[in-house]
Amino acid sequence: MKCIVRYTQNMRNVNPTRGFYAYLESAGEVFNQKLFGNTLPAPLFTLRRHGHGLGYFSGRRWSAGSGKRVNEITLNPELFAQRPLLTLLLTIVQAQCDMWQHLHGEPSRPGYRNAQWTRKMIDIGIKPVSRDEQSQRQTGQGLDLIPQPGGKFLAACAEIAGDSGRPPFSERWLKSEITPERPLADLPKDISKLLSSPVGPAVIDPQLQEQMDLKEAKRKIKYTCLNCDVNVWGRPNLALICALCGEKLRPKQRARTKDC
Ligand SMILES: [Zn+2]
């Protein structure tokens, strides 16, 4: 049987890179064993700050010196700040399910989740549902992932949270930012709290606030005239009128970070 090297609290004292990746590696190993029957090779975890949602899988992106191909799981550092621990773990498993299908199944085009993927997710205790509330769709794009009470996924998360706690390092974030919560059932209270709480503690830091305000002020958003299908980009809170039809241009809401 494959030996799982457990991440322990003592690793908090080791060097940041080693401690950070040891946590991810350990969580990935638990999921591989409990949800995927040890059929997944270890991925190379990378971090990427912008775009592509919270995380994604890239098949055979890397190569070892021997020429052996290595798969990549990329995570957004936002997962290590105000997001609940459960969202981090869910993102890892979602990418692992993509890897499972890449290696052992028949994936559709990138980003499109087909019936095989959905069956696997349901089997491991995660229900994909369409973000469109009117739709019963469980495949395609724009799916939310709902961990099922009593399912294998939440049981594996409880094991990780119980053994390893939170990741040893978190990105600093300001208390004013929104914290999404996911309700959890059927888990011990302390584990449930750990999983639904942000990975890192919020900070009060005027310097960080200043940096964030500056970033926000420089941010440009898209404004659209719905009549003429005309787009312009500009700072938030601008009042713009379309010269073609006289209608007010509507700002596009800030893109929601996709779960998948
Ligand atoms: Zn117009």
Number of domains: 2
Overall number of strands: 10
Order of strands in the sheet with most strands: 1-3-2
Assembly type of the chains comes to: single chain
Question: Radius of gyration over alpha carbons?
Answer: 21 Å
Low-confidence stretches: 255-260
Could you outline the blueprint of secondary structure elements for this entry?
Elements: H1 16-35, E1 44-47, E2 55-63, E3 69-75, H2 85-104, H3 115-123, E4 126-130, E5 143-147, H4 152-164, E6 173-174, H5 189-196, E7 202-203, H6 206-218, E8 221-225, E9 230-234, E10 250-251
Parallel strand pairs: 1-3, 6-7
Antiparallel strand pairs: 2-3, 4-5, 8-9, 8-10
Helix pairs in contact: 1-2, 1-4, 2-3, 4-5
The structure holds zinc ion.
What key phrases describe this protein's structure?
2 domains; 260 residues; binds zinc ion; globular; three-stranded antiparallel beta sheet; 10 strands; three-stranded mixed beta sheet; alpha/beta; 18% strand
Task: Please outline what is shown here.
32% of the residues lie in helices and 18% in strands. It has helices spanning 16-35, 85-104, 115-123, 152-164, 189-196, 206-218; strands at residues 44-47, 55-63, 69-75, 126-130, 143-147, 173-174, 202-203, 221-225, 230-234, 250-251.
